Amino acid sequence: MRQSIQLLTPYKVKPEFDMVRLDSNEAFMSLLSSADFSKLGETLINRYPAESSDRLVEAYARFAGFPEGNILPGNGSDELISLISQYALDPGDEVIVFEPDFSMYEKNALIMGAEVTKIQLNDDFTLPLEVVKSEINERKPRLLFLSNPNNPTGQLYSEAEIEELIAAMNQIGGILVLDEAYMDFAGESPFTGRVLEYDNLIILRTASKALGMAALRLGFLIANDRLVEGISCIKPPYNVNTISALIGTQLMEKADVLDQFLLLQLEQIAELEEIMSAFAAQIKEAYLYPSSTNFFLMKFTRARELANFLYEKRIKIRFFDDESLQAVRISAGTKEEHDSLRAALNEWSEMYA
């Protein structure tokens, strides 16, 4: 094993389908019934999926408003993050990530042998812009990764803040990778119609969150012609399988279904916020952060105890235990799942409030 990856650990997820699962920021219901499976019988699984990927990109371009010729599909955003790292990084290059943020940015940079600088977000999880610009000027990073809205904080950064990061990275010849996995919950991205205006901006989108297709593993990279052409040179030719592309295309062609699904999720997000706010108000040491996503982060000195308590109640949430974050993150679920969560939180409150 290469020395630069010897300290990495596997990302293992224990399958637990018999629980209320509010830990992975997935959509809480499946849209599979909206797909036409009669066409699966006509699928040539003995052929590579070139045509199906093309149709998927066409459908996503129409649905999301990005230019079709500037979209690369991927086997989830994870693969696209890996491809960007392979495209941009030589061993020893600098990469900037934020803490907390999505862990796969750092991991892929380390796999490429890059040097990773972590910049701590402010206490309220806002961007320390002056610190970031100073680090950019000093370290000259090849890549700066940022999720917007942020995972796991739920924080939405402003267009002006992103513009400053783009400009700072452009001055030193670096690329800003803007991961908009949760942007559908926050509204329209200010960069949807403008991504091609920038020399050094890559946007990542996914079908795994608001579109409810996590099992299909569909991600999309959007950038200018030069970046798309360069990353295409290292992208595997058949990286999105035919079945995922076929189902994904059918669902994306039903914009009315997806729009209604998003509205339903927003209703459940509001309900979850009410549940979490009521709980945080009863627990003195708990602080609930505002969110522009389908999950809420709560700082809590007894976060581990709460996560273990809920696990015993067959409710799985995400627990963060590191230097920068002692917190729980809870995703929106169904009304029935929220009822179970509310009852468990009330029981905890009665014991410890």
Automatic annotation (TrEMBL):
<protein>
    <submittedName>
        <fullName>Histidinol-phosphate aminotransferase</fullName>
        <ecNumber>2.6.1.9</ecNumber>
    </submittedName>
</protein>
<keyword id="KW-0032">Aminotransferase</keyword>
<dbReference type="GO" id="GO:0030170">
    <property type="term" value="F:pyridoxal phosphate binding"/>
</dbReference>
<dbReference type="InterPro" id="IPR015424">
    <property type="entry name" value="PyrdxlP-dep_Trfase"/>
</dbReference>
<keyword id="KW-0663">Pyridoxal phosphate</keyword>
<dbReference type="Pfam" id="PF00155">
    <property type="entry name" value="Aminotran_1_2"/>
</dbReference>
<dbReference type="InterPro" id="IPR015421">
    <property type="entry name" value="PyrdxlP-dep_Trfase_major"/>
</dbReference>
<dbReference type="InterPro" id="IPR004839">
    <property type="entry name" value="Aminotransferase_I/II_large"/>
</dbReference>
<dbReference type="GO" id="GO:0004400">
    <property type="term" value="F:histidinol-phosphate transaminase activity"/>
</dbReference>
<keyword id="KW-0808">Transferase</keyword>
<feature type="domain" description="Aminotransferase class I/classII large">
    <location>
        <begin position="46"/>
        <end position="343"/>
    </location>
</feature>
<dbReference type="InterPro" id="IPR015422">
    <property type="entry name" value="PyrdxlP-dep_Trfase_small"/>
</dbReference>
